[in-house]
Amino acid sequence: MSDGVMKKRGNDKQSISIKIKTAIAVALSTSFLFSGKAAADAQVLRVGDRGERVEELQRSLRVLEFYDYPELEGYFGTDTRSALMNFQKEHGLDVNGVADARTFRALDAALDECYPEIHFTGIMRMRSVGKDVMALQQVLKTLGYYGTRPDGVFNANTASAVRTFQFDYGMAVDGVVTERLVKKINSVSASLRPFKGPDVVIDESVAEAAETVKMAADEPEYRTDAVKLQWSAVDSAWKVGKVLRLIDVETGESVDLRRTGGVNHADAEPCTQEDTDKLKMMFGGAWSWARRPVIAQVSYITAAASICGMPHGADAINGNGVNGHFCVHFYESLDDNGYNIADRAHQRAIDIASEYSYGSVELGM
After folding, report:
1. What are the counts of helices (DSSP H) followed by strands (DSSP E) for the chain?
2. How many domains are contained in the chain?
3. pLDDT of 221 above 90
4. Which of 75, 217, 228, 269 is the most buried (most CB within 10 A)?
């Protein structure tokens, strides 16, 4: 495999060495201690979960400007997963789209910067400066009252934000920050702050054992399960002219394709002669109308897909060693037969691709 590690989910145990098994046994023998509640698995959020905790996760990601959808639907779908993976990547976490204990801790730390506690050391008014003013501006910004970058200088914009807050909460409107006002702002901030993640105490022996497992197995930087990403979402992300890398689930071989058209699915062509040669080898050395399960990384979401191995129709790229394009289908793609129905063979291949995981440092677009 040239780009990463491809694994069918559920078959990992067959290839685990004695060293890894021993490390896993150590890890599983030590508990994760939560604040009076369930085990670690019960605290993890992933695609398919629903409920208030998912909604709070979405609210957290919105405050941190990673989740920009207007509704908090309380369902962990591909949009939430994409937002979470962007957050994980920016904060140096395993980019797996799963909200685990370490991700919650990072979310808490990031939210603490948005909702700092204001410490009252004296009245704040026009021309006051310092860390307290900076914290005041940050909280008011997060709450929607202060629209510019916090700079620690109590200026006219700060005074206006303070007066608006005072008016909204039935206080004397004078733009002066007293101890009573600080307590009120802190109280409102705490009540509106998205939930804190699970109060987890991680035993260092567990972390050490987990690291041993990771090193022994030589895991990639992240591994993520392929999902059935709707064609409408792929269509928006994989624009005509853009290159996407497809990875064959059987061999792990990759090929770069440039989208050249398509409405109900993607028409795509290999970018180079090398890509054409690799694509042909994926189909056993001869072009075929067979559908082949592949996966692709689309906006940090690993998507299950299917490609037909017969070049046909319009051709837009010269010098790649093949005439015509290849059809690439995703979940809910339709055929171009005029009946607006899904190609069953492509959808079966997508089902197969969705059973795989992929690990890589960098992948695709």
Report:
1. 12, 9
2. 3
3. no
4. 269
